[in-house]
């Protein structure tokens, strides 16, 4: 969102236009905005040439609704933008959205559950032991048992892990790996981890058939048989195994429309509203192919099993239809691949609020899914192996030695790290400027106060916080845009040609001599 706005504001030519016998400076026509933004999106690596002019118009409607642009009379908030000759301009306020604030003290480490707390009444022989990192002193102690320098070791058995314990290990290690692949300090920026169901992860990893498709425990959540038959018909065209060959022209289009209508009536996309931000964050990794594939592999593992299965079947069908040269065209005006993306992207990914770049982001992600669906929708083998090894290690019998005070099975505790005085002053300054900048923006955007009161408040703010004010209004021109001068008709000047100054009249008396 921010990247496209910055490119659009920098690349959109502004000039003087006339409308109804009146001139307007630094504005542009709606059709000119569509031309400029369409060219920018087509050349941007995150969108590409598949972006249509109609999609560009829809994005400009979002811009108008979110006050990225406004008409020449300052109106905005509605999606009534059209590809015509109406005049628009950029508002003086910043349309960029703030990024989530990252924690200042180190990286958050997703903690593993601790099952080493002994139960009440547990004997000393079954106290869980902490394994030790080998060093020279410990090596000497361990290997000097034979000569009696230290007490002999003894076996200690860990408690048996329950299914719930194992599911929590899967959740912890899966989220930890996802955070590392995305390169984030914390997943809180893009995901509410409380909404991640550990049972779903385990079911998606183990309940699969030979083709890697999830098998559901609840059969009532399976796709209807007639939809499965329709999908198989188009995916395997013309060799349909369980359907007879069509006897009329346009049969394949009717089947395709039936599938589109079925998936389009769902109340929630297959990738769910909760995981929208996590999938959108993967778009930044598309240039790094292997990382993007791994991130999507792990993210799809978090889905409810019924959603994951439907996604697997749908994307596989879309990919096969796009590559099937024997299938008649499903549209007269749109290529088959583009039609697949346009028809199903919304039922795969969209946000709950339906704002911003939903359609373009979904199209980009769905295209990548179609090209790499076999890898992405399979269980990540490296992650599965590491988790299984960890579970075995936790359940293994341990050997207790004197001085063993660390546990390598669990990640080390993360503490805040010391920073320099200069870095502290910088963090304190930037941390306090954010709410002040928000306060200044609130004053600027407040339409309920009069111009006189707004000028007074801005002057007080400038006097109290000159640095924050200078960032918002770097030049006098940016400040002047808020208060356009009104042309006042001056009354004609009355000119008085007075040769001598006015003398008061004095009555005098004359006396005759």
Automatic annotation (TrEMBL):
SMART domains: DEP. It comes from the Eukaryota. InterPro entries: DEP_dom (IPR000591), Rho_GTPase_activation_prot (IPR008936), RhoGAP_dom (IPR000198), WH-like_DNA-bd_sf (IPR036388), WH_DNA-bd_sf (IPR036390). GO terms for molecular function: GTPase activator activity. One of its GO terms (biological process) is intracellular signal transduction. Residues 185-377 form the Rho-GAP domain. Keywords: GTPase activation. PANTHER family: DEP DOMAIN-CONTAINING (PTHR16206), DEP DOMAIN-CONTAINING PROTEIN 1B (PTHR16206:SF11). This is DEP domain-containing protein 1B.
């Amino acid at each position: 969102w921010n990247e496209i706005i910055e490119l659009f504001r920098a690349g959109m030519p502004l000039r003087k236009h006339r409308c109804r016998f009146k001139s307007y400076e630094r504005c542009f026509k709606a059709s000119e905005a569509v031309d400029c933004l369409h060219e920018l999106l087509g050349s941007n690596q995150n969108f590409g040439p598949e972006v249509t002019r109609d999609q560009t118009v829809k994005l400009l409607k979002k811009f108008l609704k979110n006050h990225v642009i406004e008409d020449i009379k300052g109106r905005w908030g509605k999606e009534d933008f059209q590809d015509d000759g109406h005049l628009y301009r950029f508002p003086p306020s910043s349309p960029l959205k703030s990024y989530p604030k990252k924690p200042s003290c180190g990286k958050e480490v997703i903690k593993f559950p601790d099952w080493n707390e002994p139960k009440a009444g547990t004997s000393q022989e079954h106290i869980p032991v902490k394994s030790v990192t080998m060093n020279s002193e410990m090596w000497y102690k361990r290997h000097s048992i034979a000569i009696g320098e230290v007490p002999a070791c003894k076996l200690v058995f860990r408690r048996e892990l329950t299914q719930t314990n194992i599911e929590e290990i899967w959740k912890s290690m899966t989220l930890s790996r996802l955070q590392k692949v995305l390169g984030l300090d914390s997943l809180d920026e893009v995901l509410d981890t409380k909404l991640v169901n550990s049972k779903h992860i385990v079911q998606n990893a183990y309940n699969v058939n030979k083709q890697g498709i999830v098998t559901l425990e609840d059969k009532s959540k399976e796709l209807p048989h007639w939809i499965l038959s329709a999908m198989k018909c188009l995916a395997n065209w013309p060799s349909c195994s369980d359907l007879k060959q069509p006897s009329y022209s346009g049969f394949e289009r009717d089947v395709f429309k039936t599938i589109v209508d079925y998936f389009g009536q769902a109340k929630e996309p297959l990738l769910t509203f909760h995981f929208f931000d996590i999938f959108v964050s993967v778009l930044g990794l598309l240039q790094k192919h292997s990382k993007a594939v791994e991130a999507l592999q792990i993210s799809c593992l978090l889905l409810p099993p019924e959603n994951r299965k439907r996604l697997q079947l749908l994307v596989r069908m879309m990919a096969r239809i796009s590559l099937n040269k024997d299938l008649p065209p499903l549209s007269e005006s749109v290529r088959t691949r583009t039609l697949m993306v346009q028809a199903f992207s919304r039922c795969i990914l969209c946000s709950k609020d339906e704002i911003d770049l939903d359609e373009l982001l979904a199209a980009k992600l769905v295209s990548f899914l179609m090209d790499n669906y076999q890898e992405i929708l399979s269980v990540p083998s490296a992650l599965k192996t590491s988790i299984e090894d960890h579970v075995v290690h936790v359940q293994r019998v341990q050997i207790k030695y004197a001085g063993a005070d660390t546990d390598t099975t669990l990640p080390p505790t993360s503490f805040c790290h010391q920073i320099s005085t200069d870095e502290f002053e910088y963090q304190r300054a930037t941390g306090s400027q954010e709410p002040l900048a928000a306060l200044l923006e609130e004053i600027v955007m407040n339409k309920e106060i009069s111009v006189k009161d707004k000028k007074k408040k801005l002057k007080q703010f400038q006097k109290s916080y000159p640095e924050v004010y200078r960032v918002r209004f770097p030049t006098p021109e940016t400040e002047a845009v808020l208060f356009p001068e009104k042309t006042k008709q001056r009354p004609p000047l009355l000119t008085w040609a007075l040769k001598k100054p006015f003398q008061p009249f004095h009555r005098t008396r004359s006396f005759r001599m």
